[in-house]
Write a structure and sequence with these properties.
The structure is a single chain. With 297 residues, this protein is mostly helical. Among the domains are: 1-26, no CATH class; 173-294, no CATH class. The protein is 71% helix and 0% strand. α9 (196-218) packs antiparallel against α10 (224-249) and α10 (224-249) packs parallel to α12. It is elongated and about 150 Å long. It starts with a helix and ends in a 6-residue tail after the last helix. The model has no long low-confidence stretch (mean pLDDT 74).
Length: 297
C-alpha cells in the first residue's frame, strides 16, 4: 500500500503534491502550519476555487493573434477568388458584338424620339406632370347643404327684419318706439343737403310727414298733447323751408315744389278742422293761413 501511495504522489495525484504545486511548499496541507490555526476542509476548498479562478483570469489569450493571422491570409484568398472569376469570364465569354451594336442603336433611337416629342422648353414627362398638377386648383371647401340652407334662411330673416324696421320707422307716429329714429333720420338728411334748394325741399318733405302724423293723431283723443306738438313742428318746418327758398331763389312763391306742397298740405289738414277743438283747431287754422299764399292760383 505504501508503494501505491508513493507512486500516486510521484505522479502528482495526491493532495500534498497538488498543495506543493499551488503554494510552493511541501508540507502536508492537512497539518496546521506552525503559528497558524488548523483550516477546515470547507475553507481549503474555497481557497482552491479562488486560485483556479485567478489562474483562469490571468491566462494569456490567443484571440488577437488568431485575428491577426486571419487578416494576413485574406489578401491571398481574395487574389485567388479574383483569379477564379477571371477564368470563368474567359470561359463563358461576353455579349456578342452584334448584340451590343443592336442594343446601342435601339437606345439611341428611343432617346431621339423622346427628345423630339417633348415640347420646347419643357423638362420632359416629369415636368409635364408637375405642371399639370400645379395647373389644377385645389378643391375648394364647400359647406354641406344643411349649413348653406341655414345661412340663407338667416340672411333672409335678417333682410326681412331690416325691411320691417324700415317700414315701421317710415310709418311711425309720435308715441311709437321707432319714432325717435324717424326724426333722427330726417334731421340727418336735412344736414347732408348739398345746397340751400335741396335743404328746403327736404324740409318740405319733413313738413308733409308731420301733416300725415296729425291726421293719425287726430283720430286718437288720448294723444291730444302729442297732436298739438306735431302741429307746431309742422308749422316751424314749413317756415324754415320758405326762408331757405327765399335765400336761395330770391323768392319762394315761384317755386313749383312749394306750390304743390301747399296744395297737398291743405288737402290733408283742412278736412281735420271740424274734428279738432281748442288750441289744436286754432293752430291748424293758422297753418292753413300760412300756406294760403303759396298755392297754385
Amino acid at each position: 500500500m505504501d508503494d501505491r501511495r508513493s507512486r500516486r504522489c510521484a505522479s502528482g495525484g495526491c493532495a500534498g503534491a497538488r498543495h506543493a504545486r499551488r503554494t510552493g511548499r511541501h508540507d502536508d496541507p492537512a497539518e496546521p502550519r506552525h503559528g497558524a490555526p488548523h483550516e477546515p476542509p470547507r475553507e481549503r476548498a474555497r481557497d482552491a476555487a479562488h486560485d483556479r479562478g485567478h489562474d483562469r483570469l490571468h491566462r494569456p489569450r490567443r484571440t488577437a493573434a488568431r485575428r491577426r493571422s486571419a487578416r494576413e491570409r485574406m489578401p491571398e484568398e481574395a487574389e485567388e477568388v479574383i483569379a477564379r472569376l477571371a477564368e470563368l469570364r474567359d470561359a463563358l465569354g461576353g455579349p456578342r458584338p452584334e448584340f451590343r451594336a443592336r442594343l446601342r442603336e435601339t437606345l439611341l433611337s428611343a432617346h431621339e424620339e423622346l427628345r423630339r416629342s417633348a415640347p420646347e422648353g419643357s423638362g420632359g414627362p416629369a415636368a409635364d406632370r408637375a405642371a399639370a398638377a400645379l395647373a389644377v386648383p385645389p378643391p375648394a371647401f364647400r359647406p354641406s347643404l344643411r349649413v348653406r340652407l341655414r345661412s340663407a334662411a338667416l340672411a333672409l330673416a335678417l333682410l326681412a327684419a331690416l325691411l320691417g324696421m324700415s317700414w315701421g320707422v317710415q310709418h311711425a307716429v309720435p308715441g311709437d318706439t321707432l319714432y325717435p329714429i324717424k326724426r333722427a333720420t330726417e334731421s340727418a338728411l336735412i344736414r347732408l343737403s348739398v345746397d340751400e334748394t335741396a335743404r328746403a325741399e327736404r324740409e318740405l318733405d319733413t313738413a308733409h310727414n308731420r301733416a300725415t302724423e296729425v291726421a293719425v293723431l287726430a283720430a286718437d283723443p288720448a294723444r291730444k298733447k302729442l297732436l298739438e306738438k306735431t302741429i307746431d313742428d309742422m308749422a316751424s318746418t314749413t317756415r324754415s323751408a320758405i326762408r331757405t327758398l327765399t335765400r336761395a331763389k330770391g323768392g319762394a312763391r315761384d317755386h313749383g315744389k312749394l306750390r304743390r306742397f301747399a296744395a297737398e298740405q291743405r288737402n290733408v289738414v283742412e278736412p281735420l278742422i271740424p274734428a279738432l277743438n281748442g288750441s289744436s283747431k286754432e293752430k291748424a287754422s293758422a297753418y292753413l293761413h300760412l300756406i294760403e299764399g303759396f298755392e297754385d292760383p
